[in-house]
aldehyde oxygenase (deformylating) (Urochloa decumbens), 619 residues
Amino acid sequence: MATRPGPLTKWPWQWMGNFKYLVLAPAVLHTIHRVATKGWGDLDPAYVTMLPALLLRMIHNQIWISLSRYLMARRKNVIVDRSIEFEQVDRERSWDDQIIFNGLEFYLAYAMIPNVRLLPVWRTDGAIITVLLHMGPVEFLYYWFHRALHHHFLYSRYHSHHHASIVTEPITSVIHPFAEHVVYFMLFSIPTLTPIFMGCGSVLGVVLYIAYIDFMNNMGHCNFELVPKWTFKAFPPLKYLMYTPSFHSLHHTQFRTNYSLFMPFYDYMYNTMDKSSDELYEKSLKVTDETPDLVHLTHMTTLQSTYHLRIGIASIASKPSDNPVWYSWMIWPVAWLLMVLAWVYGSSAFVIERLQMKKFTMQTWTIPRYNFQYGMNWERDSINSLIVKAILDADERGVKVLSLGLLNQAKALNRSGELFITKYPKLRVRLVDGSGLATAVVLKSIPLGTKKVFLSGSTSKVAHATAITLCEKGVQVIMNQKKEYDMLKSRLPEGRTVYLKFSNKDIPQIWIGDNINDKQQQRAPIGMTFIPTSQFPLKKIRKDCTYLSTPAMKIPQTMENVHTCENWLPRRVMSAWRIAGILHALEGWETHECGDDMMDIEKTWTAAIKHGFVPLTKG
Protein backbone atom coordinates (compact mmCIF):
# COMPACT_ATOMS: atom_id res chain seq x y z
CA MET A 1 0.00 0.00 0.00
CA ALA A 2 1.20 3.51 -0.80
CA THR A 3 2.25 5.72 2.11
CA ARG A 4 -0.84 7.94 1.59
CA PRO A 5 -3.22 5.88 -0.61
CA GLY A 6 -5.08 7.91 -3.21
CA PRO A 7 -8.35 7.21 -5.07
CA LEU A 8 -8.56 3.94 -7.04
CA THR A 9 -5.66 2.40 -5.13
CA LYS A 10 -7.37 -0.92 -4.43
CA TRP A 11 -8.41 -3.37 -7.11
CA PRO A 12 -12.21 -3.53 -7.55
CA TRP A 13 -12.25 -7.23 -6.65
CA GLN A 14 -9.89 -7.05 -3.67
CA TRP A 15 -12.80 -7.71 -1.31
CA MET A 16 -13.33 -11.10 -3.00
CA GLY A 17 -10.02 -12.46 -1.71
CA ASN A 18 -9.16 -15.87 -3.20
CA PHE A 19 -12.44 -15.88 -5.12
CA LYS A 20 -11.36 -12.99 -7.35
CA TYR A 21 -11.09 -15.27 -10.39
CA LEU A 22 -14.89 -15.46 -10.39
CA VAL A 23 -14.69 -12.07 -12.13
CA LEU A 24 -13.78 -14.03 -15.27
CA ALA A 25 -16.61 -16.54 -14.79
CA PRO A 26 -19.08 -14.79 -17.17
CA ALA A 27 -16.48 -14.90 -19.97
CA VAL A 28 -15.76 -18.58 -19.35
CA LEU A 29 -19.45 -19.48 -19.20
CA HIS A 30 -20.09 -17.53 -22.40
CA THR A 31 -17.36 -19.53 -24.13
CA ILE A 32 -18.82 -22.83 -22.93
CA HIS A 33 -22.32 -21.80 -24.06
CA ARG A 34 -21.04 -20.68 -27.44
CA VAL A 35 -19.21 -23.95 -28.07
CA ALA A 36 -22.18 -26.01 -26.84
CA THR A 37 -24.70 -24.24 -29.08
CA LYS A 38 -22.71 -23.37 -32.18
CA GLY A 39 -19.73 -25.72 -32.09
CA TRP A 40 -16.00 -25.09 -32.31
CA GLY A 41 -16.24 -23.96 -35.91
CA ASP A 42 -17.94 -20.73 -34.84
CA LEU A 43 -14.88 -19.58 -32.85
CA ASP A 44 -12.50 -17.15 -34.53
CA PRO A 45 -8.72 -16.97 -33.80
CA ALA A 46 -9.04 -13.95 -31.48
CA TYR A 47 -11.68 -15.60 -29.28
CA VAL A 48 -9.89 -18.95 -29.12
CA THR A 49 -6.63 -17.28 -28.07
CA MET A 50 -7.88 -15.22 -25.12
CA LEU A 51 -8.01 -17.77 -22.27
CA PRO A 52 -4.89 -19.72 -23.33
CA ALA A 53 -3.00 -16.42 -23.59
CA LEU A 54 -3.89 -15.56 -19.98
CA LEU A 55 -2.77 -18.99 -18.78
CA LEU A 56 0.50 -18.77 -20.70
CA ARG A 57 1.19 -15.37 -19.14
CA MET A 58 0.84 -16.86 -15.67
CA ILE A 59 3.18 -19.74 -16.57
CA HIS A 60 5.65 -17.29 -18.11
CA ASN A 61 5.67 -15.18 -14.94
CA GLN A 62 6.06 -18.24 -12.69
CA ILE A 63 9.09 -19.42 -14.70
CA TRP A 64 10.72 -16.04 -14.12
CA ILE A 65 9.91 -16.17 -10.40
CA SER A 66 11.47 -19.63 -10.01
CA LEU A 67 14.54 -18.76 -12.08
CA SER A 68 15.13 -15.52 -10.18
CA ARG A 69 14.81 -17.13 -6.76
CA TYR A 70 17.09 -20.00 -7.76
CA LEU A 71 19.87 -17.71 -8.98
CA MET A 72 19.47 -15.36 -6.02
CA ALA A 73 19.90 -18.35 -3.67
CA ARG A 74 23.15 -19.19 -5.48
CA ARG A 75 24.10 -15.48 -5.52
CA LYS A 76 25.17 -15.81 -9.15
CA ASN A 77 25.20 -12.45 -11.00
CA VAL A 78 23.12 -10.94 -8.19
CA ILE A 79 22.65 -7.16 -8.40
CA VAL A 80 21.29 -5.97 -5.03
CA ASP A 81 22.66 -8.11 -2.21
CA ARG A 82 19.98 -7.47 0.39
CA SER A 83 17.27 -9.60 1.97
CA ILE A 84 13.61 -10.14 1.14
CA GLU A 85 11.18 -10.58 4.03
CA PHE A 86 7.60 -11.81 4.47
CA GLU A 87 6.21 -8.28 4.27
CA GLN A 88 7.32 -7.96 0.65
CA VAL A 89 6.03 -11.41 -0.30
CA ASP A 90 2.61 -10.60 1.17
CA ARG A 91 2.51 -7.25 -0.60
CA GLU A 92 3.33 -8.87 -3.94
CA ARG A 93 0.83 -11.73 -3.71
CA SER A 94 -1.56 -9.79 -5.94
CA TRP A 95 0.66 -10.01 -9.05
CA ASP A 96 -2.06 -11.92 -10.91
CA ASP A 97 -4.56 -9.06 -10.56
CA GLN A 98 -3.20 -7.42 -13.69
CA ILE A 99 -3.73 -10.65 -15.65
CA ILE A 100 -7.38 -10.77 -14.53
CA PHE A 101 -7.69 -7.10 -15.51
CA ASN A 102 -6.20 -7.78 -18.94
CA GLY A 103 -8.57 -10.72 -19.39
CA LEU A 104 -11.55 -8.45 -18.81
CA GLU A 105 -10.07 -5.92 -21.24
CA PHE A 106 -9.67 -8.60 -23.93
CA TYR A 107 -13.29 -9.71 -23.63
CA LEU A 108 -14.60 -6.15 -23.61
CA ALA A 109 -12.53 -5.30 -26.70
CA TYR A 110 -13.85 -8.40 -28.44
CA ALA A 111 -17.43 -7.47 -27.62
CA MET A 112 -17.16 -3.76 -28.49
CA ILE A 113 -14.78 -3.66 -31.49
CA PRO A 114 -16.13 -5.53 -34.57
CA ASN A 115 -12.69 -5.62 -36.23
CA VAL A 116 -11.34 -7.90 -33.49
CA ARG A 117 -13.53 -10.79 -34.68
CA LEU A 118 -12.00 -10.50 -38.15
CA LEU A 119 -8.36 -10.54 -37.04
CA PRO A 120 -6.11 -12.91 -38.97
CA VAL A 121 -3.47 -14.96 -37.19
CA TRP A 122 -0.59 -12.79 -38.50
CA ARG A 123 0.03 -9.53 -40.41
CA THR A 124 3.63 -8.35 -40.86
CA ASP A 125 2.67 -4.74 -41.60
CA GLY A 126 0.59 -4.56 -38.42
CA ALA A 127 3.49 -5.95 -36.37
CA ILE A 128 5.82 -3.29 -37.77
CA ILE A 129 3.35 -0.56 -36.81
CA THR A 130 3.14 -2.00 -33.29
CA VAL A 131 6.95 -1.87 -32.93
CA LEU A 132 7.14 1.72 -34.20
CA LEU A 133 4.31 2.88 -31.95
CA HIS A 134 5.98 1.31 -28.93
CA MET A 135 9.35 2.92 -29.69
CA GLY A 136 7.74 6.28 -30.27
CA PRO A 137 4.60 7.30 -28.34
CA VAL A 138 4.62 4.55 -25.69
CA GLU A 139 8.23 4.92 -24.56
CA PHE A 140 7.97 8.74 -24.68
CA LEU A 141 4.67 8.97 -22.77
CA TYR A 142 5.72 6.35 -20.23
CA TYR A 143 8.99 8.17 -19.52
CA TRP A 144 7.22 11.41 -18.63
CA PHE A 145 4.38 9.69 -16.81
CA HIS A 146 6.98 7.80 -14.75
CA ARG A 147 8.76 11.02 -13.89
CA ALA A 148 5.42 12.51 -12.85
CA LEU A 149 4.81 9.51 -10.59
CA HIS A 150 7.99 10.43 -8.73
CA HIS A 151 6.60 13.84 -7.85
CA HIS A 152 5.90 13.74 -4.10
CA PHE A 153 2.12 14.14 -4.61
CA LEU A 154 1.67 11.11 -6.90
CA TYR A 155 4.54 9.16 -5.35
CA SER A 156 3.07 9.18 -1.85
CA ARG A 157 -0.42 8.29 -3.12
CA TYR A 158 0.45 5.68 -5.74
CA HIS A 159 3.97 4.85 -6.89
CA SER A 160 5.51 4.39 -3.43
CA HIS A 161 3.65 1.07 -3.28
CA HIS A 162 5.82 -0.25 -6.13
CA HIS A 163 9.02 1.23 -4.71
CA ALA A 164 8.49 -0.37 -1.30
CA SER A 165 10.47 -3.26 -2.80
CA ILE A 166 14.14 -2.25 -2.87
CA VAL A 167 15.21 -5.80 -3.70
CA THR A 168 13.00 -6.60 -6.66
CA GLU A 169 11.65 -9.91 -7.86
CA PRO A 170 10.10 -10.46 -11.32
CA ILE A 171 6.58 -10.04 -9.96
CA THR A 172 7.52 -6.67 -8.43
CA SER A 173 7.15 -5.34 -11.98
CA VAL A 174 3.34 -5.49 -11.86
CA ILE A 175 2.77 -4.49 -8.23
CA HIS A 176 1.08 -1.13 -8.69
CA PRO A 177 -2.16 0.46 -7.48
CA PHE A 178 -5.18 -0.09 -9.72
CA ALA A 179 -5.13 3.51 -10.97
CA GLU A 180 -1.60 3.08 -12.35
CA HIS A 181 -2.61 -0.08 -14.20
CA VAL A 182 -5.47 1.79 -15.84
CA VAL A 183 -2.97 4.31 -17.24
CA TYR A 184 -0.62 1.53 -18.35
CA PHE A 185 -3.52 -0.16 -20.13
CA MET A 186 -4.23 3.03 -22.05
CA LEU A 187 -0.55 3.36 -22.97
CA PHE A 188 -0.18 -0.22 -24.17
CA SER A 189 -3.47 0.00 -26.05
CA ILE A 190 -1.84 2.42 -28.50
CA PRO A 191 0.32 -0.25 -30.23
CA THR A 192 -2.35 -2.97 -29.97
CA LEU A 193 -5.55 -1.15 -30.98
CA THR A 194 -4.13 1.19 -33.63
CA PRO A 195 -3.27 -1.61 -36.11
CA ILE A 196 -6.70 -3.16 -35.46
CA PHE A 197 -8.49 0.09 -36.32
CA MET A 198 -6.21 0.47 -39.37
CA GLY A 199 -7.26 -2.98 -40.58
CA CYS A 200 -3.80 -4.54 -40.32
CA GLY A 201 -3.89 -6.00 -36.81
CA SER A 202 -3.41 -9.68 -36.02
CA VAL A 203 -3.88 -12.09 -33.14
CA LEU A 204 -0.17 -12.95 -32.90
CA GLY A 205 0.71 -9.27 -33.13
CA VAL A 206 -1.23 -8.58 -29.91
CA VAL A 207 -0.11 -11.76 -28.12
CA LEU A 208 3.58 -11.29 -28.95
CA TYR A 209 3.51 -7.63 -27.92
CA ILE A 210 2.04 -8.53 -24.52
CA ALA A 211 4.61 -11.34 -24.20
CA TYR A 212 7.33 -8.77 -24.93
CA ILE A 213 6.01 -6.49 -22.18
CA ASP A 214 5.91 -9.38 -19.70
CA PHE A 215 9.40 -10.56 -20.67
CA MET A 216 11.00 -7.13 -20.33
CA ASN A 217 9.13 -6.36 -17.12
CA ASN A 218 10.23 -9.63 -15.53
CA MET A 219 13.79 -9.29 -16.76
CA GLY A 220 14.10 -5.73 -15.48
CA HIS A 221 13.06 -6.74 -11.97
CA CYS A 222 14.70 -10.19 -11.66
CA ASN A 223 17.69 -8.87 -9.62
CA PHE A 224 20.32 -10.88 -11.48
CA GLU A 225 22.23 -9.77 -14.55
CA LEU A 226 21.67 -12.04 -17.53
CA VAL A 227 22.37 -9.89 -20.60
CA PRO A 228 25.82 -10.98 -21.89
CA LYS A 229 28.41 -8.37 -22.85
CA TRP A 230 28.76 -9.72 -26.38
CA THR A 231 25.25 -8.54 -27.27
CA PHE A 232 26.26 -4.89 -26.88
CA LYS A 233 29.62 -5.46 -28.57
CA ALA A 234 27.94 -7.09 -31.57
CA PHE A 235 25.37 -4.28 -31.86
CA PRO A 236 26.38 -1.14 -29.88
CA PRO A 237 23.12 0.81 -30.52
CA LEU A 238 21.30 -1.91 -28.54
CA LYS A 239 22.22 -0.12 -25.30
CA TYR A 240 19.71 2.57 -26.29
CA LEU A 241 17.00 0.10 -27.30
CA MET A 242 17.07 -2.41 -24.43
CA TYR A 243 17.67 -1.93 -20.74
CA THR A 244 19.35 -4.49 -18.48
CA PRO A 245 18.26 -5.76 -15.05
CA SER A 246 21.06 -3.77 -13.42
CA PHE A 247 19.94 -0.60 -15.27
CA HIS A 248 16.44 -0.77 -13.83
CA SER A 249 17.66 -2.00 -10.45
CA LEU A 250 19.36 1.35 -9.99
CA HIS A 251 15.98 3.01 -10.38
CA HIS A 252 14.77 1.06 -7.32
CA THR A 253 17.81 1.97 -5.23
CA GLN A 254 18.41 5.57 -6.42
CA PHE A 255 14.77 6.52 -7.28
CA ARG A 256 15.62 9.64 -9.36
CA THR A 257 17.37 8.02 -12.33
CA ASN A 258 16.71 5.48 -15.11
CA TYR A 259 13.02 6.24 -15.69
CA SER A 260 12.69 4.57 -19.09
CA LEU A 261 10.23 1.78 -19.74
CA PHE A 262 12.38 -0.71 -21.69
CA MET A 263 14.40 1.50 -24.05
CA PRO A 264 16.86 3.81 -22.26
CA PHE A 265 17.31 6.36 -25.05
CA TYR A 266 15.03 8.89 -23.32
CA ASP A 267 17.20 8.69 -20.18
CA TYR A 268 20.21 9.47 -22.36
CA MET A 269 18.29 12.23 -24.13
CA TYR A 270 17.07 13.97 -20.96
CA ASN A 271 20.21 13.26 -18.90
CA THR A 272 18.50 11.08 -16.28
CA MET A 273 20.63 7.98 -16.81
CA ASP A 274 22.43 6.92 -13.65
CA LYS A 275 26.17 7.40 -14.11
CA SER A 276 26.92 4.09 -12.39
CA SER A 277 24.76 2.04 -14.78
CA ASP A 278 27.64 0.62 -16.81
CA GLU A 279 29.76 0.01 -13.71
CA LEU A 280 26.98 -1.94 -11.94
CA TYR A 281 26.34 -3.94 -15.11
CA GLU A 282 30.00 -5.00 -15.33
CA LYS A 283 30.19 -5.72 -11.61
CA SER A 284 27.04 -7.88 -11.58
CA LEU A 285 28.28 -10.06 -14.43
CA LYS A 286 31.39 -10.89 -12.39
CA VAL A 287 29.52 -12.16 -9.31
CA THR A 288 30.01 -15.93 -9.01
CA ASP A 289 28.31 -18.65 -7.00
CA GLU A 290 28.64 -18.17 -3.25
CA THR A 291 30.26 -20.71 -0.91
CA PRO A 292 28.17 -20.71 2.28
CA ASP A 293 29.39 -21.46 5.80
CA LEU A 294 26.61 -23.99 6.29
CA VAL A 295 24.44 -26.20 4.09
CA HIS A 296 21.19 -27.74 5.26
CA LEU A 297 20.36 -30.80 3.16
CA THR A 298 16.65 -31.52 2.91
CA HIS A 299 14.28 -33.16 0.40
CA MET A 300 10.75 -32.87 -0.95
CA THR A 301 8.01 -34.42 1.20
CA THR A 302 4.62 -34.66 -0.52
CA LEU A 303 3.86 -34.04 -4.19
CA GLN A 304 2.57 -30.56 -3.38
CA SER A 305 5.80 -29.73 -1.52
CA THR A 306 7.33 -28.85 -4.90
CA TYR A 307 5.26 -25.67 -4.85
CA HIS A 308 6.26 -25.03 -1.24
CA LEU A 309 9.94 -24.73 -2.09
CA ARG A 310 11.29 -21.19 -2.16
CA ILE A 311 11.68 -21.51 -5.94
CA GLY A 312 8.07 -22.68 -6.21
CA ILE A 313 4.93 -20.57 -5.81
CA ALA A 314 5.77 -17.62 -3.55
CA SER A 315 2.33 -17.28 -1.94
CA ILE A 316 2.33 -21.00 -1.03
CA ALA A 317 5.94 -21.09 0.18
CA SER A 318 5.33 -18.15 2.52
CA LYS A 319 2.81 -20.13 4.58
CA PRO A 320 3.04 -23.48 6.42
CA SER A 321 2.67 -26.42 4.04
CA ASP A 322 -0.40 -27.71 5.87
CA ASN A 323 -2.23 -24.49 4.93
CA PRO A 324 -4.43 -25.59 1.98
CA VAL A 325 -4.95 -23.49 -1.17
CA TRP A 326 -8.15 -23.63 -3.20
CA TYR A 327 -6.42 -24.21 -6.54
CA SER A 328 -4.27 -27.17 -5.43
CA TRP A 329 -6.50 -29.63 -7.34
CA MET A 330 -5.90 -27.66 -10.54
CA ILE A 331 -2.10 -27.96 -10.33
CA TRP A 332 -2.09 -31.58 -9.12
CA PRO A 333 -1.22 -32.99 -12.60
CA VAL A 334 1.77 -30.64 -12.77
CA ALA A 335 2.93 -31.92 -9.37
CA TRP A 336 2.89 -35.47 -10.73
CA LEU A 337 4.83 -34.43 -13.80
CA LEU A 338 7.46 -32.63 -11.71
CA MET A 339 7.83 -35.70 -9.50
CA VAL A 340 8.47 -37.94 -12.50
CA LEU A 341 10.96 -35.47 -13.97
CA ALA A 342 12.79 -35.20 -10.64
CA TRP A 343 12.90 -38.99 -10.32
CA VAL A 344 14.22 -39.55 -13.84
CA TYR A 345 16.50 -36.54 -14.30
CA GLY A 346 17.27 -35.44 -10.72
CA SER A 347 20.92 -36.42 -10.47
CA SER A 348 22.09 -33.99 -7.77
CA ALA A 349 20.89 -31.72 -4.99
CA PHE A 350 19.99 -28.15 -5.96
CA VAL A 351 20.02 -24.84 -4.09
CA ILE A 352 16.63 -23.48 -3.03
CA GLU A 353 17.36 -20.90 -0.32
CA ARG A 354 20.03 -18.61 1.05
CA LEU A 355 19.89 -17.07 4.55
CA GLN A 356 22.21 -14.74 6.38
CA MET A 357 22.87 -14.14 10.07
CA LYS A 358 25.25 -11.19 10.43
CA LYS A 359 28.29 -12.29 8.40
CA PHE A 360 27.35 -15.96 8.54
CA THR A 361 25.76 -17.38 5.37
CA MET A 362 23.79 -20.58 4.90
CA GLN A 363 22.11 -22.34 2.00
CA THR A 364 19.44 -25.02 1.79
CA TRP A 365 20.01 -27.78 -0.74
CA THR A 366 17.28 -30.19 -1.75
CA ILE A 367 17.63 -33.83 -2.75
CA PRO A 368 15.20 -34.36 -5.71
CA ARG A 369 13.31 -37.18 -3.99
CA TYR A 370 10.04 -37.44 -2.03
CA ASN A 371 9.01 -39.10 1.25
CA PHE A 372 7.54 -42.18 -0.40
CA GLN A 373 10.80 -42.85 -2.25
CA TYR A 374 12.76 -42.97 1.01
CA GLY A 375 10.55 -45.89 2.04
CA MET A 376 11.51 -47.98 -1.01
CA ASN A 377 14.32 -50.43 -0.24
CA TRP A 378 15.50 -50.43 -3.84
CA GLU A 379 15.86 -46.63 -3.79
CA ARG A 380 18.13 -46.44 -0.74
CA ASP A 381 21.44 -46.80 -2.58
CA SER A 382 20.36 -44.18 -5.11
CA ILE A 383 19.33 -41.71 -2.40
CA ASN A 384 22.51 -42.29 -0.38
CA SER A 385 24.50 -41.65 -3.56
CA LEU A 386 22.74 -38.29 -3.98
CA ILE A 387 23.50 -37.42 -0.35
CA VAL A 388 27.15 -38.44 -0.74
CA LYS A 389 27.43 -36.33 -3.88
CA ALA A 390 26.08 -33.30 -1.98
CA ILE A 391 28.44 -33.92 0.97
CA LEU A 392 31.51 -34.23 -1.26
CA ASP A 393 30.48 -31.13 -3.22
CA ALA A 394 30.13 -29.14 0.03
CA ASP A 395 33.46 -30.50 1.25
CA GLU A 396 35.23 -29.54 -1.96
CA ARG A 397 33.78 -26.01 -1.88
CA GLY A 398 34.92 -25.41 1.70
CA VAL A 399 31.56 -25.55 3.48
CA LYS A 400 32.13 -25.83 7.24
CA VAL A 401 29.00 -27.72 8.33
CA LEU A 402 26.33 -29.79 6.58
CA SER A 403 23.19 -30.66 8.53
CA LEU A 404 21.05 -33.62 7.47
CA GLY A 405 17.35 -32.76 7.37
CA LEU A 406 14.25 -34.96 7.45
CA LEU A 407 14.82 -38.50 6.15
CA ASN A 408 18.33 -37.77 4.91
CA GLN A 409 19.47 -38.93 8.35
CA ALA A 410 17.11 -41.90 8.71
CA LYS A 411 18.57 -44.78 10.71
CA ALA A 412 17.41 -47.34 8.15
CA LEU A 413 18.97 -45.30 5.34
CA ASN A 414 22.43 -44.39 6.61
CA ARG A 415 22.44 -44.88 10.41
CA SER A 416 21.94 -41.17 11.14
CA GLY A 417 24.80 -40.22 8.83
CA GLU A 418 27.33 -42.65 10.29
CA LEU A 419 27.62 -44.38 6.90
CA PHE A 420 29.16 -41.25 5.36
CA ILE A 421 31.81 -40.48 7.98
CA THR A 422 32.80 -44.16 8.01
CA LYS A 423 33.20 -44.22 4.24
CA TYR A 424 34.90 -40.80 4.08
CA PRO A 425 36.88 -40.39 7.33
CA LYS A 426 38.88 -37.40 6.00
CA LEU A 427 35.89 -35.13 5.47
CA ARG A 428 36.57 -31.53 6.42
CA VAL A 429 32.89 -30.58 6.41
CA ARG A 430 31.22 -31.54 9.70
CA LEU A 431 28.05 -33.62 9.42
CA VAL A 432 25.30 -32.88 11.92
CA ASP A 433 22.06 -34.80 12.52
CA GLY A 434 20.89 -32.27 15.14
CA SER A 435 19.78 -34.89 17.65
CA GLY A 436 21.31 -33.11 20.64
CA LEU A 437 19.34 -29.89 20.23
CA ALA A 438 16.18 -31.76 19.16
CA THR A 439 16.35 -33.76 22.40
CA ALA A 440 16.87 -30.55 24.39
CA VAL A 441 13.80 -28.94 22.79
CA VAL A 442 11.63 -31.97 23.58
CA LEU A 443 12.84 -32.01 27.19
CA LYS A 444 12.18 -28.28 27.60
CA SER A 445 8.67 -28.78 26.18
CA ILE A 446 7.66 -31.15 28.99
CA PRO A 447 5.86 -29.17 31.73
CA LEU A 448 7.80 -28.55 34.92
CA GLY A 449 6.86 -30.89 37.72
CA THR A 450 5.93 -33.79 35.41
CA LYS A 451 6.41 -37.08 37.28
CA LYS A 452 5.74 -39.56 34.51
CA VAL A 453 5.48 -39.66 30.71
CA PHE A 454 4.39 -42.30 28.23
CA LEU A 455 6.83 -43.19 25.42
CA SER A 456 4.93 -44.53 22.44
CA GLY A 457 6.92 -47.26 20.61
CA SER A 458 9.75 -45.16 19.22
CA THR A 459 13.13 -46.20 17.88
CA SER A 460 14.64 -42.85 16.96
CA LYS A 461 17.81 -41.45 18.44
CA VAL A 462 15.96 -38.42 19.84
CA ALA A 463 13.20 -40.50 21.45
CA HIS A 464 15.71 -42.78 23.18
CA ALA A 465 17.90 -39.87 24.33
CA THR A 466 14.81 -38.11 25.72
CA ALA A 467 13.70 -41.21 27.63
CA ILE A 468 17.17 -41.85 29.05
CA THR A 469 17.57 -38.22 30.17
CA LEU A 470 14.12 -38.26 31.84
CA CYS A 471 14.99 -41.44 33.73
CA GLU A 472 18.28 -39.90 34.86
CA LYS A 473 16.29 -36.93 36.18
CA GLY A 474 13.95 -39.18 38.14
CA VAL A 475 10.95 -38.92 35.79
CA GLN A 476 9.20 -42.23 35.19
CA VAL A 477 8.99 -43.32 31.55
CA ILE A 478 6.25 -45.83 30.74
CA MET A 479 6.31 -48.06 27.66
CA ASN A 480 3.96 -50.78 26.39
CA GLN A 481 6.12 -52.39 23.70
CA LYS A 482 8.33 -55.10 25.19
CA LYS A 483 11.07 -55.17 22.54
CA GLU A 484 11.63 -51.42 22.73
CA TYR A 485 11.42 -51.52 26.50
CA ASP A 486 14.13 -54.20 26.79
CA MET A 487 16.43 -52.38 24.38
CA LEU A 488 16.08 -49.05 26.18
CA LYS A 489 16.49 -50.66 29.60
CA SER A 490 19.83 -52.15 28.55
CA ARG A 491 21.14 -48.67 27.81
CA LEU A 492 20.18 -47.14 31.16
CA PRO A 493 22.59 -46.87 34.11
CA GLU A 494 21.82 -49.60 36.60
CA GLY A 495 20.60 -47.21 39.24
CA ARG A 496 18.06 -45.62 36.88
CA THR A 497 16.29 -48.66 35.44
CA VAL A 498 13.68 -48.33 38.18
CA TYR A 499 12.34 -45.24 36.39
CA LEU A 500 11.62 -47.22 33.21
CA LYS A 501 8.34 -49.08 33.51
CA PHE A 502 6.57 -51.57 31.25
CA SER A 503 2.79 -51.26 31.50
CA ASN A 504 -0.34 -51.51 29.35
CA LYS A 505 -2.60 -49.81 31.87
CA ASP A 506 -0.72 -46.86 33.33
CA ILE A 507 -1.35 -43.94 30.92
CA PRO A 508 -0.03 -40.52 32.11
CA GLN A 509 -1.08 -37.12 30.68
CA ILE A 510 2.13 -36.56 28.70
CA TRP A 511 2.86 -38.69 25.61
CA ILE A 512 6.07 -38.47 23.63
CA GLY A 513 7.08 -40.41 20.56
CA ASP A 514 7.97 -40.46 16.88
CA ASN A 515 4.70 -41.66 15.42
CA ILE A 516 1.64 -41.88 17.64
CA ASN A 517 -0.96 -43.49 15.39
CA ASP A 518 -4.73 -42.93 15.28
CA LYS A 519 -5.55 -45.95 17.41
CA GLN A 520 -3.15 -44.88 20.17
CA GLN A 521 -4.50 -41.34 20.13
CA GLN A 522 -8.08 -42.57 20.42
CA ARG A 523 -7.34 -44.47 23.62
CA ALA A 524 -5.59 -41.50 25.22
CA PRO A 525 -7.50 -39.78 28.05
CA ILE A 526 -9.06 -36.34 27.63
CA GLY A 527 -6.62 -33.49 28.09
CA MET A 528 -3.60 -35.46 26.90
CA THR A 529 -0.54 -33.55 25.65
CA PHE A 530 1.23 -35.10 22.67
CA ILE A 531 4.88 -34.14 22.16
CA PRO A 532 6.45 -35.42 18.91
CA THR A 533 10.11 -36.44 18.87
CA SER A 534 10.15 -36.77 15.09
CA GLN A 535 10.74 -34.17 12.39
CA PHE A 536 7.28 -34.96 11.01
CA PRO A 537 4.14 -33.65 12.77
CA LEU A 538 1.52 -35.90 14.29
CA LYS A 539 -1.84 -36.29 12.62
CA LYS A 540 -4.25 -34.37 14.85
CA ILE A 541 -7.42 -36.41 15.34
CA ARG A 542 -8.39 -35.30 18.85
CA LYS A 543 -9.88 -31.88 19.57
CA ASP A 544 -9.85 -32.48 23.33
CA CYS A 545 -6.07 -32.97 23.47
CA THR A 546 -3.06 -30.68 23.03
CA TYR A 547 -0.59 -31.22 20.20
CA LEU A 548 2.80 -29.55 20.43
CA SER A 549 4.93 -28.68 17.43
CA THR A 550 7.71 -30.86 16.17
CA PRO A 551 10.99 -29.82 17.89
CA ALA A 552 11.60 -26.27 16.70
CA MET A 553 12.50 -22.76 17.86
CA LYS A 554 11.85 -19.18 16.81
CA ILE A 555 14.76 -17.67 14.94
CA PRO A 556 16.46 -14.38 15.94
CA GLN A 557 15.72 -11.11 14.15
CA THR A 558 19.34 -11.01 13.01
CA MET A 559 18.60 -13.85 10.59
CA GLU A 560 17.73 -12.25 7.25
CA ASN A 561 16.20 -13.20 3.92
CA VAL A 562 13.61 -15.39 5.62
CA HIS A 563 10.44 -15.27 3.55
CA THR A 564 9.41 -18.92 3.29
CA CYS A 565 8.15 -21.39 5.87
CA GLU A 566 10.08 -24.56 6.64
CA ASN A 567 7.57 -27.23 5.68
CA TRP A 568 4.68 -27.19 8.20
CA LEU A 569 6.30 -24.80 10.70
CA PRO A 570 5.01 -21.22 11.20
CA ARG A 571 6.81 -18.15 9.90
CA ARG A 572 10.29 -17.49 11.32
CA VAL A 573 10.32 -20.84 13.07
CA MET A 574 13.03 -23.38 12.28
CA SER A 575 13.37 -27.07 13.10
CA ALA A 576 15.80 -28.00 15.87
CA TRP A 577 17.72 -30.26 13.50
CA ARG A 578 18.42 -27.33 11.18
CA ILE A 579 19.26 -24.94 14.01
CA ALA A 580 21.76 -27.49 15.35
CA GLY A 581 23.79 -27.19 12.16
CA ILE A 582 23.79 -23.39 12.48
CA LEU A 583 25.03 -23.61 16.07
CA HIS A 584 27.70 -26.09 15.06
CA ALA A 585 29.08 -23.55 12.57
CA LEU A 586 28.64 -20.49 14.80
CA GLU A 587 30.37 -22.15 17.74
CA GLY A 588 33.10 -23.68 15.59
CA TRP A 589 32.56 -27.18 16.96
CA GLU A 590 34.92 -29.60 15.22
CA THR A 591 33.15 -32.91 15.83
CA HIS A 592 30.57 -34.76 13.76
CA GLU A 593 27.16 -35.45 15.28
CA CYS A 594 26.20 -38.67 13.53
CA GLY A 595 25.44 -42.29 14.29
CA ASP A 596 25.41 -42.88 18.04
CA ASP A 597 27.33 -39.68 18.76
CA MET A 598 25.31 -36.80 20.16
CA MET A 599 26.27 -33.31 21.23
CA ASP A 600 25.84 -32.49 24.90
CA ILE A 601 22.17 -31.60 25.37
CA GLU A 602 22.65 -28.70 27.78
CA LYS A 603 25.58 -27.36 25.76
CA THR A 604 23.54 -27.11 22.57
CA TRP A 605 20.55 -25.60 24.40
CA THR A 606 22.74 -22.95 26.02
CA ALA A 607 24.29 -22.11 22.64
CA ALA A 608 20.84 -21.79 21.04
CA ILE A 609 19.65 -19.34 23.70
CA LYS A 610 22.93 -17.39 23.48
CA HIS A 611 22.51 -16.85 19.75
CA GLY A 612 18.94 -15.59 20.08
CA PHE A 613 16.85 -18.68 19.31
CA VAL A 614 13.65 -18.77 21.38
CA PRO A 615 11.67 -21.87 22.47
CA LEU A 616 8.09 -22.20 21.19
CA THR A 617 6.87 -23.59 24.52
CA LYS A 618 8.21 -23.35 28.03
CA GLY A 619 8.24 -26.41 30.24
User: Anything to note?
Assistant: The first strand starts at residue 294 and ends at 299. The mean pLDDT is 94.
